[in-house]
Specification:
With 297 residues, the protein is mainly β. The protein has 1 helix and 22 strands. Strands 9, 10, 11, 14, 16, 21 and 22 form a 7-stranded mixed β-sheet that branches. Strands 1, 2, 3, 4 and 7 form a 5-stranded antiparallel β-sheet that branches. The termini are far apart.
Length: 297
């Protein structure tokens, strides 16, 4: 801070309303990617929504370039457990009557146990005629061990590969989520077969009783997750993909939901925890596609 003589109350207010002013280790960090370009969130302190270590601490408006101010909120993330976790948080911007005007997703990496990280979130541009936003709530929190966090970009992990899941597709009860692997290292990376998958519930505890089948065609054809497994060698910069295929049919029994899945790209590989949001219904089955080099089906 430029002026060490700032009063403590003013310093606290700046910390509350500045975006990305504290990282997991307690030092300065770059802001998390905002939902809209804004010059800062002038949040009014107040009690708000709390879920899974995430708390909304104030709401207000952020000045947006080239448009009207947008609703925003200040929030905190407090680490729990014994290891750092990376958080993906979905916020909803609501009217006084509870109507949702917009949502925004924020990622907060590497929150250490017992540490509190302060951030802000700004709504995307609202449609003309939208109702006035009066509160912001935490809609969903997903957190994975930072050591197992997926990465789509940024520095190459020590393993030399990036593994992540996409947002998936759904139609008529059929779900397909792609798994992606990039060799971001400096040496060839070999694959042969199917990724190993371990399902987990909202508390990241193992989900048992699901039959994991090799080949997406065991659930449905035409998803791109079909075919035999073949040996692959990915040169640096090359990519491969697999897929998770399931139906969310609900008949007799209790439906199974597994928001998390651990992915082992091959035997001996370090696990990566992704969030495919598996709503498996009562089918008890999940199909896994073989690894294929990008550009092939």
């Amino acid at each position: 801070m430029r002026d060490a003589a700032l009063p403590a109350a003013l310093a606290g207010l700046l910390l509350l309303t500045a975006c990305g002013t504290e990282q997991a280790g307690g030092g300065p960090s770059a802001p998390s990617a905002p939902s809209a370009k804004a010059a800062g969130c002038a949040a009014r302190p107040g009690d708000g929504s709390t879920e899974d270590g995430v708390a909304v601490t104030g709401t207000g408006e952020a000045a947006a370039s080239g448009g009207a101010p947008r609703p925003c909120a200040a929030y905190t993330v407090t680490g729990a457990g014994t290891a750092p976790f990376s958080y993906t948080i979905t916020f909803q911007f609501l009217t006084e009557t509870g109507q949702a005007m917009a949502s925004a997703e924020e990622t907060v990496p590497a929150v250490a146990p017992g540490k509190t990280v302060r951030r802000t979130v700004t709504a995307p541009e609202l449609a003309p005629g939208s109702g006035a936003v009066t509160r912001v709530e935490v809609l969903k929190v997903r957190s994975v061990p930072t050591a197992e966090a997926p990465s789509e970009s940024g520095p190459c992990p020590p393993s030399g590969v990036r593994v992540y899941a996409d947002d998936g597709d759904s139609a008529m009860g059929l779900r397909v989520v792609g798994l992606h692997l990039e060799n971001c290292g400096t040496t060839p990376y070999e694959l042969n077969g199917y990724p190993r998958i371990g399902l987990a519930d909202e508390k990241r505890e193992p989900v048992d009783g699901i039959e994991i089948l090799q080949g997406g065609e065991s659930i449905a054809g035409g998803t791109g997750a079909e075919g035999p497994a073949r040996p692959l060698v990915l040169a640096p910069g090359e990519r491969a993909h697999s897929g998770l295929v399931w139906r969310n049919t609900v008949e007799a029994g209790d439906p199974v939901n597994a928001p998390y899945a651990r992915v082992w790209a091959k035997p001996g590989a370090a696990p990566i925890m992704v969030t495919p949001e598996l709503d498996l219904g009562t089918t008890g089955k999940l199909g896994i596609g073989p690894w294929k080099k990008d550009g092939t089906r």
